[in-house]
Design brief:
Elements: H1 3-17, H2 23-35, H3 37-59, H4 62-68, H5 70-93, H6 107-119, H7 123-131, H8 142-174, H9 180-200
Helix pairs in contact: 1-8, 2-3, 2-6, 2-8, 2-9, 3-6, 3-7, 3-8, 4-7, 5-9
Length: 207
Amino acid sequence: MSVETYLLYLAAVAVFFATPPDTSQLLIVSNAMKHGLRRSLWVICGDLSANVLQMTAAAFGLAAIIATSAQAFGWIKWLGVAYLVWIGLRLMLSRGGQGPSAPAARATGLFRMGFLTSMTNPFAVVFFAALFPQFIDPHMAILPQLVILGVTYLAVDGVTLLLWGWAGERVAQRLAKLSMTGINRISGGLMIGAAALLGFKDIAPER
């Protein structure tokens, strides 16, 4: 892979993230508003860990199975939608609670939330399978190129999620006069909004 090709890939990934927030970004905003950015780093870790598995799946051709199976694609997608709606409703119906420094927000739970939300997004595997081949030089060793592309994507994604989390935490501080019930309802609404994004997003499997 030439330097020019890598810079073009970096620009393509940057442009991809310079769009309205997607499911993962709304998730981190919601958690940063409720738990603060520091504890929400576990959500980011979970999200990026799922991305690593999705990249691996794409590299081994599992994306082709998902892309050609409408039933498998649909099941994964709607499980993710249901999971996000469930979390959102729990937040919206909860009363009060702790502030951003709440010890009740366990790291394992936040990591699991980020991991499951990203892992049940079948579009990610298809995306990686479509993106990476465009920037790989077939005349060079494939594995090192995949590693470079994957690590670069994770770095850009991680920084983007940090920025969205920082914004969410600042919004929560500005809304500090609201009761935690109000914060929970806003966070829950963001969760359901993320579910809607995943539900309405569609990639037609090839037949």
